[in-house]
Amino acid sequence: MAPRLRRLRRASDLTLEAAARRVGLSPAYLSRLETGRRQPSLPMLLALARTYGTTVSDLLGETTPEREPVIRADQMEAAEADGWVYRRAGAPSGAMQALRVQVPQGQQRDLVRVHPGEEWIHLLDGELRLTLGEREHRLRPGDSAHYDSMTPHRLAATAPGGADLLFVHTLLRSAEAELCLGGGLLRGRDHGFTAPRKATP
Known about the structure:
Blueprint: H1 2-11, H2 16-23, H3 27-34, H4 42-52, H5 56-59, E1 78-81, E2 84-88, E3 96-103, E4 118-126, E5 128-132, E6 135-139, E7 144-148, E8 153-157, E9 163-170
Antiparallel strand pairs: 1-2, 2-3, 3-9, 4-7, 4-9, 5-6, 5-8
Helix pairs in contact: 2-3
């Protein structure tokens, strides 16, 4: 994967510093990803794919000669990041990606996302708190939400058993594509917006 990351960055005419700024990483950390000394998490892969105008599958070097329209339940391989479990629920394409996501109770390190495109979620089980900008929405099984993902957004499962949801997002190339994470990566104030207030239980 490391050589592919470097090749895609250069093909996008981005310096190491410019690409790192868009993804929300330090240039030193991105350099370690490009030399194979670090492995990116799934949120990082999503940010890199958006920045370089490609898909996570392409970053991972996965090739499918012919797209299979049906994905069986036992074929959905799980990937975990910070306790969230992701399963591919549709063939990746240049326009959208569908995932089935299990969200543990609580928030993923105060995760706040903002990027060009749209997102659609449908809650299958549990209870979910969706924060869009300054507004908070409570979702119960059967509820759906469709929103512009340039609005700072955050998900949190509020039930002890977590939440199970379907998640579809667009994969758009943009110079402004960013995935903002709390902790070691860039926070909301670094991108010209105010992160949503923490919701009151």
